[in-house]
Amino acid sequence: MSAVVESYCPDLNLINRGKVRDIYDVDEGHLLFVASDRVSAFDVVMSNGIPGKGKILNQLSLFWFDLLSDLGANHLAVTDFEAMPESVKTYRDQLEGRSILVRKLAILPVEAIVRGYITGSGWKEYKKQGTVCDIPLPEGLEESEQLPAPLYTPSTKAEQGLHDENIHPDKAAEILGAEQAKAVTDRAIALYVKAAAYAATRGIIIADTKFEFGVDVAGDLVLADEVLTPDSSRFWPADKYATGRGQDSFDKQYVRDYLESIHFDKTNPVEIPGDVVARTLEKYVEAYRLITGEEPAL
Asked: Which of 21, 149, 293, 294 has the most CB atoms in a 10 Å sphere around its CB?
């Protein structure tokens, strides 16, 4: 199985290549999202990909969209490849299993991050000043400790190659307006709470995650992009969890560890060795298997 690092569909109108997704403008109301096998670390897309990674991300997002559908609308329009427009089915060999047709939305300029545990950039800030996104937290928390309640910590959305910036919820309200900011906060926390409760029954801790939202033509808030994948979330194995240290995770940690070992300059893409690719794919497959109880279709 070879990696699909870039989709090539010349008869479709490519409008963006992100860190993972290629996005095509299909018609007046719809976009085609294609989950490639690209892998990024430190905001740099590597030279080679992880074969099958995009299919796993796509299938896992669809699982979560379904599980969380009672909490509000999402952007899905067509998920069955056989029901896709003929212009899409022309590229079956590239797109099947890794594509969804979604409604066009006005995407909000704020990422909705929800933290259930203190880790990552939140832990770094807390150690310095006792806050996360300038939100005061209780004294004496340990690394990876569960927070008293899920914490909404939004960020700005940076262009590719740049870093998102964590912001206080009040700043998000200035950007979005108070009413919309509250709707995003409430929905994001509700999504996290339900997903975390489900994941706990599967032996996984969702330490944190990020959601993206848009607004449809009726002005309604709609969940968009990917949902609760190892690329957008920190998944920890519950049976290995302990506070006071960093945790094992179901994500790109093997890639990051390799890059650190070669003193990666965090600027120029490099080739990821085959053994690192294989171990990273194993983590994605394991996460999918644990969460869904099924094997991913690769």
From this structure: 21
